[in-house]
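note to self — DONT lose this again. spent like an hour looking for the file last time. sequence + predicted structure for the chain T wanted, 129 res
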Amino acid sequence: MIPNNSITFNFDSLNIFSLAAPSIKDEIALKKNNTIQWHENHDVIFLECPISDGFPKSEVAWFHNSEPITENFDLQIFKKTLNINRFVETLNGIYICNAKNEYGSVKYKFRLYLASNLTSYFSFKSYYL
């Protein structure tokens, strides 16, 4: 028998959260971080930021060559996904998704280049090796 002045707890629906910074989701994503991707002119590309939210939930920001991305027809942001609707030479470069909350931040890099630049890229690399 439970006395009238006691408190009871129902643990069936209790959620316990750890306060944590965001992190890269898994080892496969970690290995692909900062790798080069070659694409054709006018390709449609979807970049999914492979970051696990920490707690509290992370804010995600996207950057192209260190500049914050301004959305337009070619570049659209949907939560953790960056849609590139028409990849052209001016969109070559490094894309970064940056997730942060009050406990920390993590960045993930995508390096995208036009396949038509492939020959000049390797000529440049071999010249300086």
